[in-house]
User: Fold these one by one.
Assistant:
Number 1:
Amino acid sequence: MFDIINHKPQLNPLAHPVKLEGSSDHLIILIHGYTGTPREFDELGKLLNDKYNFSIVIPRLPGHGTDSKDFRKTGRRDWLRSIYDLIINMEKDFNNIHLIGLSMGALIALLSSIHFSIKSLVLISPALYARNKKMLFSHILKYIKPVIDYNPKIDSSIKDPDLIDLYNNYNRYEYTAQLAELHKLMFECRRKIKKVNTKIKIIHSKKDELVPLKSALKIYENVKSEDKDITILNKSPHVISYGPEKERLFKEVVDFFN
């Protein structure tokens, strides 16, 4: 029988965290989404580093970018704590820390802004709600059916074995215990959203297949932030940085930091 406790995961070559040094007193931490990896922010991170010479850190959340056995040992406290610890470690070197989050990463950014002095927030496809109805039952399903077939087919055009490996570990199945953890994180954000008063930019797409537009609107309407803005795109998938409007996304974020 496989020993999941003593399992030593190997990091996928596509999932390495990114650190780019800059010369200013500004640091941007970019937080990827649920089952995602730092590669979701590769282009945007490099662009902001080149444009403004801000320091960039794109961390890898615990259990992500390795394999499903590693992922299934983690939960929302691990994901939150990794970013909280990173901010604490960086506060001594930077007076201006900005957070950019995608999907679940946007929720982590929101909660971080309540506990730490964060200069600004950019929330991309923030997952305050989800279209996945199984999430509602995940708190019970995790005891009955811990693994559920999700989408066993992968795009035939994908040939990269490392990308296929990531897909098979994180997208081929749904892990109901971790889905329940994500759901708890959503509820925590909904309860605390009115405590957020940081400068904020929200970007969401009407075509988002995973997160409804009401997530972005709910955040925009309920944060205390006086300086807030929302951009709604028309053609993008959930991970906007991989979609047809990624250049628009990049421009919106670059302009926000101008």
Number 2:
Amino acid sequence: MGKNFPIVELSEEKGVAPVIGTVISIAIVFILTFLVSSVVFEEYGDSSHKKSPVAKLQIFFTEDGSSLEFEHDGGDPLFFDSSSLSVIMDINNTSYLLNDSALGTFEAGEKKILELNKSLQSPIELKPGDFVSVKVVDYESGSLITKRELEVKRQTVVVPK
């Protein structure tokens, strides 16, 4: 008599684990390739998406209230002599674009004074208790670099020179 071997049925199903592992590995390679290439080729991208400068600015009224003092506490240099940066002062719902070219190139650690009588186009009156908003805007990137709310401490009339 012969030996009886159990009959093993052949299954048509194949293992899916190797296929899933291969698909995940390929996806990881594509993702890593995309990330590395986006970092490496970032400088060659569309120049219209320029980064805005990042700077920590403090802005105060001078003691007599007729000028603004700017203090650059760190970050990128700011180029006020270019057309992309502007200083805007809002007083009582009226915005004034200041002539900020006197600030020139502004490096970290520097302090500069912006005289309002040389920066305004029309006279303004500042009264004690008024709040003034001073913004530095980068038009090239469309971003706000800093915004400070200042309280007027003394009566000042600024007449452009």
Number 3:
Amino acid sequence: MLHVTAAVLQHRGRVLLARRTGPEWLAGKWEFPGGKIEEGEEPREALARELAEELDLRVTIGAHLVTTRHAYPELSLELSAFLVDLPDDLPAPELHLSDHDRVAWLDPLKMGEMELAAADLPIVAALLARIAPSP
């Protein structure tokens, strides 16, 4: 079981998705950026490191959103997602991509239109449940 983290980066009502370049079986799929938790790291610490490495982005990791498990044919993973709120009064940060070829800032209700990695689908559901208006 591989332990990984993901960031639900939010800015001005939009959420960031990034398109993977590899491995081959995930290439072209959209995901919430993040990565592997190294031995001895806490999930938030790992996520901050991964965002700095993959996007050249330094942020404060916020609240835990959801932890899920998913088994791909190639590997099984446990994915912990955290909210990361970027200041609305500043422009969206300039991102420098290393593990992705594209990023998109989307209205959360439009995320389902993207070809998402299967492990990230429960994150979308948890985020939509969190922002859904109360009846």
Number 4:
Amino acid sequence: MDISELIQVHTIGYHLQDVKVNFAHDIKIDIPEVSIDAKHGEILSIPRWVSDVLSSEKLVEVQDTDMVVALKQAIVKENVQGDFDLSTLEPEFYIKMNSFMQRLPQQDRDKLESMLNSLVRKRQGKIIKLADSSKLTAESAKKLTVEERALFDYIYNNSAAFKKQVLSDKK
């Protein structure tokens, strides 16, 4: 499974998870796999993909993690770690960030994207150093997102192949 397929599987899983929503209108929906009978002001947990549709129509307000706060916290945590130490990000962190950013106005999205880029650059540098120097430990694996794990594996395997190719004549 390549990285894009892996991310797609995790994205689908993320959209199947339940999220709390506050209903702005009385709603009654009864389709296969989803049945909702909610009154204005009621808070219920519904599948995220359903909340995305209802939210786009201004029928619900999603009560989700504030990803701006989560991103700022992630940046601070990453900055206090050493050059080889990664802070822990949940496996779907980037998937959540991208989903959150899609709901923002362009100006807010641009600001958040700039912050996200700084986090990605810092973590990418650390992952490159780690992947070039050692195998992935269970402790390090828990700190990586889905995408970062694929990056680590790619760099580790290619670095090992490069070293083998370059150093094989000297043995």
